[in-house]
């Protein structure tokens, strides 16, 4: 168990230092105040208000339906809870493709309304101009390369991405455009390790092996509380769904038997 060394807010500078010191970065998704409070207190370095909330929270089939206003609504709750963690909000489909002007406007609205510390967008070389414009506006950006869930229909499903040259081109273009961090999704460990070695900025992997500078998972997956399909790269550190079923089952029984509430829980 590691506990946070300091309660001070982490910044982009800390993540650069962590890369040069070889200290791995921990990132988990958070979608609401209560969970964000617990993750922050447990010492998670970065909280991601991921557009995966479309699937995990809203029950959609993929991440395409979630809107900018909904991302802002969840971002507000998470940023309000985080004291130490650096908070990142995903730009939802297809807002970063609305042209540079609209994309920067949307990122600015996210920063202004939520109080988060950075935005993340899916894309690499194709998004270099958008990343550069956001960075020029003082908005820290994480570029998300490899498997891009917002392009699920174009990619023919959630598949491991193995085009080494394309991955390298995307990651370096994002870095040169000013991204302070590159997230790598569903890439063979060997390629992700090579990318992490070549980039100056830290990489954060999901389904990308142990050679990245940090790791991210969907919190509901690693806690064992995702009701649908869970990707094979996820390790379950708890079985919260089972604990909820058992606790709620017991409560229902006690209500039916009229043994809850007892005297201790009545006025
Ligand atoms: N609950 C949840 N967890 C996630 O990690 C996640 C989401 N939702 N929603 C948005 C994206 C979609 N993600 C996914 C979804 C499925 C696979 C998947 O099925 N991968 C296969 C590999 C397929 C292949 O061999 O090419 C696997 O076996 O895990 C991967 C990433 C990651 N993200
Ligand atoms: C899976 C992570 C990287 C993400 O982008 C999300 O949660 O939306
Ligand atoms: Mg996302």
Automatic annotation (TrEMBL):
Co-factor binding details: Binds 1 Mg(2+) ion per subunit.
* Binding-site positions, Mg(2+): 51, 90, 122
User: Among its keywords, does the record have rRNA-binding?
Assistant: no
**What GO biological process terms does the UniProt entry carry, in alphabetical order?**
methylation; pantothenate biosynthetic process
Residues binding 3-methyl-2-oxobutanoate are 51-52, 90, 120
Q: Any idea what this protein is called?
A: 3-methyl-2-oxobutanoate hydroxymethyltransferase
Q: Which organism is it from?
A: Mariniblastus fucicola
- One GO term of the cellular component aspect? cytoplasm
Q: What GO molecular function annotation could you give as one example from this UniProt entry?
A: 3-methyl-2-oxobutanoate hydroxymethyltransferase activity
Which Pfam families is this protein grouped with? Pantoate_transf
- Please give the cofactor(s) recorded in the UniProt entry for this protein: Mg(2+)
Report the function annotation for this chain: Catalyzes the reversible reaction in which hydroxymethyl group from 5,10-methylenetetrahydrofolate is transferred onto alpha-ketoisovalerate to form ketopantoate.
In the record, the note on similarity to other proteins reads:
Belongs to the PanB family.
Reaction(s) catalysed by this chain, per the record, are:
(6R)-5,10-methylene-5,6,7,8-tetrahydrofolate + 3-methyl-2-oxobutanoate + H2O = 2-dehydropantoate + (6S)-5,6,7,8-tetrahydrofolate
Q: Which UniProt keywords apply?
A: Cytoplasm, Magnesium, Metal-binding, Methyltransferase, Pantothenate biosynthesis, Transferase
Q: Name the domain of life this protein comes from.
A: Bacteria
């Amino acid at each position: 168990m590691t506990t946070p060394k300091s309660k001070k807010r982490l910044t982009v500078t800390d993540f650069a230092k962590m890369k040069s010191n070889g200290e791995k970065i921990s990132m988990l998704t958070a979608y609401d105040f209560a969970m964000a409070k617990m993750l922050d207190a447990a010492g998670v370095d970065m909280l991601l208000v991921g557009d995966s909330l479309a699937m995990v929270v809203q029950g959609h089939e993929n991440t395409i339906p979630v809107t900018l206003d909904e991302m802002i609504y969840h971002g507000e709750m998470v940023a309000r809870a985080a004291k130490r963690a650096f908070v990142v909000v995903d730009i939802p489909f297809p807002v970063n493709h609305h042209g540079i002007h609209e994309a920067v406007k949307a990122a600015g609205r996210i920063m202004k309304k939520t109080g988060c510390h950075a935005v993340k967008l899916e894309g690499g070389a194709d998004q270099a101009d958008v990343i550069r414009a956001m960075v020029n506006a003082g908005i820290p950006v994480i570029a998300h390369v490899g498997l891009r869930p917002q392009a699920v229909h174009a990619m023919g499903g959630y598949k491991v991405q193995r085009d080494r040259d394309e991955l390298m081109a995307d990651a370096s273009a994002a870095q040169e455009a000013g991204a302070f961090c590159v997230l790598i999704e569903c890439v063979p460990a060997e390629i992700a390790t090579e990318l992490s070695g070549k980039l100056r900025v830290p990489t954060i992997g999901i389904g990308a092996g142990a050679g990245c500078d940090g790791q991210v998972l969907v919190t509901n997956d690693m806690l064992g509380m995702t009701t649908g399909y869970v990707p094979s790269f996820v390790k379950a550190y708890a079985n919260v769904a089972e604990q909820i079923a058992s606790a709620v089952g017991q409560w229902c029984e006690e209500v039916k038997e009229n043994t809850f509430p007892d005297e201790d829980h009545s006025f």
